[in-house]
């Protein structure tokens, strides 16, 4: 056997050292990112001298629920969680097996945090009350599994939540659940796609931040700090199957985007899962539209746990929102499962649809 020459040994050693250095740099970078994630919410809490830590506790409970739902989504086919559970929810929609599991996970995790005064879920007709001795400072509204009609075909789905200030100091009742969009303290969504992404808006100078779940360590890593929506985009997102039921303003808007005088049409993208469509809009700009139609004159999306939280996130990311009259966050809340039209995205794109509503005397 030939002896390894000095030159070859030197090359092999140098190459090995180079590879090891790359791994060490990656490990250090990963550790720094992990430390940021663990401390992110706590650091924001410390900046507020009046903070009690209750919001941090609540967010940790929600993060635990998101991790559990993410795991269940990835194993749904194997664990036979696809398919219809056999009941219909308050929205008149068939309840999926995974809907039920996700709802239970969110309810149990949030209740155990002792930070919530009341829970409002898409899957429950009435508010979920908390024992007076276990009540916290916040009202939480959530859609445990948005886009669940897409579960069986493996399209991206998500979870949406909003944390509202409790309107009174004492115990709360059902009427106190009619909170306003401007009372949101924190809102976020989780996207269960090729990876699990959590996007969080704390409503302060931190803006909107994205965290990706590292399944190898079970932690969310800060990967998208300070997300900002471009001032104008090149994509519109709407279900064009309902075009015949749109009002004149929406019809004209979509026609202008498809057949512009500049001969540079917008691209059309529509997943059918609000979390996926809004996340893309935040990343790349453009507009997401879910208008009122003849069959749904008040809109289709729910205000407390879909419209408001997404509007809060978008506006904190520098975007704009509209409900056909005003900002979504200024919509008057009249009932727990109230619906509303939704237009949100890049500032200039949303202004365009607002101008058309004024032109057609619709607002």
SSE layout:
Blueprint lengths: L5 H42 L6 H21 L9 E5 L5 E3 H15 L4 E6 L6 E2 L8 E9 L10 E9 L18 E9 L3 E6 L6 E7 L4 E6 L10 E3 L10 H11 L8 E2 L5 H11 L2 E4 L10 E2 H14 L3 E3 L16 E2 L1 E4 L1 H13 L4
Parallel strand pairs: 3-5, 11-12, 11-13
Antiparallel strand pairs: 1-2, 3-4, 5-6, 6-7, 7-8, 8-9, 9-10, 13-17, 14-16, 15-17
Entry summary:
This protein is α+β, with helices and mostly antiparallel strands and 363 residues long.
Which consecutive residue ranges, at least 5 long each, have pLDDT under 50? Answer: 81-86
Characterize the main sheet.
Answer: 8 strands, mixed
H and E string: HHEEHEEEEEEEEEHEHEEHEEEH
The CA-CA distance between the termini, in Å, is 87 Å
The amount of helix comes to 25-40%
Number of helices: 7
Keywords:
single chain; 363 residues; alpha+beta; eight-stranded mixed β-sheet
Descriptive account of the structure:
This protein has 363 residues and is an alpha+beta fold. Helices cover 35% and strands 23% of the residues. The chain is built from 7 helices and 17 strands. The strands form 4 sheets. It has an 8-stranded mixed sheet with strand order 4-3-5-6-7-8-9-10, with helices on both faces. The protein has a 5-stranded mixed sheet with strand order 12-11-13-17-15, with helices on both faces. A hairpin with a 6-residue loop joins strand 3 and strand 4. The longest helix has 42 residues, at 6-47. The chain is globular, with a radius of gyration of 23 Å. The model is unreliable at 81-86 (pLDDT under 50).
């Amino acid at each position: 056997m030939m002896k390894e020459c000095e030159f070859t040994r030197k090359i092999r050693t140098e190459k090995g050292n180079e590879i090891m250095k790359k791994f060490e740099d990656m490990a250090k970078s990963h550790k720094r990112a992990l430390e940021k994630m663990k401390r992110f919410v706590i650091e924001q809490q410390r900046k507020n001298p009046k903070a009690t830590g209750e919001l941090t506790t609540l967010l940790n409970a929600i993060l635990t629920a998101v991790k559990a739902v993410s795991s269940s989504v990835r194993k749904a086919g194997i664990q036979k969680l696809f398919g219809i559970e056999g009941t219909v929810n308050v929205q008149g929609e068939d309840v999926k097996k995974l809907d039920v599991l996700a709802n239970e996970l969110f309810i149990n995790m949030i209740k155990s945090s002792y930070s919530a005064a009341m829970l409002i879920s898409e899957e429950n007709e009435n508010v979920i009350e908390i024992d007076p001795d276990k009540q916290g400072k916040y009202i939480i509204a959530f859609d445990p599994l948005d886009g669940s009609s897409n579960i069986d075909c493996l399209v991206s789905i998500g979870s949406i939540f909003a944390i509202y200030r409790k309107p009174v100091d004492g115990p709360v009742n059902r009427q106190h659940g009619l909170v306003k969009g401007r009372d949101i303290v924190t809102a976020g969504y989780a996207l269960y796609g090729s990876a699990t992404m959590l996007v969080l808006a704390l409503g302060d100078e931190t803006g909107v931040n994205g965290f990706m779940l590292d399944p190898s360590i079970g932690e969310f890593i800060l990967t998208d700090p300070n997300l900002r929506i471009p001032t104008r985009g090149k994509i519109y997102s709407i279900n064009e199957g309902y075009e015949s039921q749109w009002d004149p303003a929406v019809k004209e808007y979509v026609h202008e985007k498809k057949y512009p005088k500049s001969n540079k049409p917008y691209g059309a993208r529509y997943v059918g899962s609000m979390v996926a469509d809004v996340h893309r809009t935040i990343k790349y700009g453009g507009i997401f539209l879910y208008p009122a139609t003849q069959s749904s004159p008040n809109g289709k999306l729910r205000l407390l746990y879909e419209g408001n939280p997404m509007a809060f996130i978008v506006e904190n990311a520098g975007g704009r929102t509209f409900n056909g009259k005003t900002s979504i966050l200024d919509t008057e809340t009249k009932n727990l499962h109230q619906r509303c039209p939704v237009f949100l995205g890049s500032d200039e794109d949303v202004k365009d649809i607002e101008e058309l509503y004024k032109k057609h005397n619709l607002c």
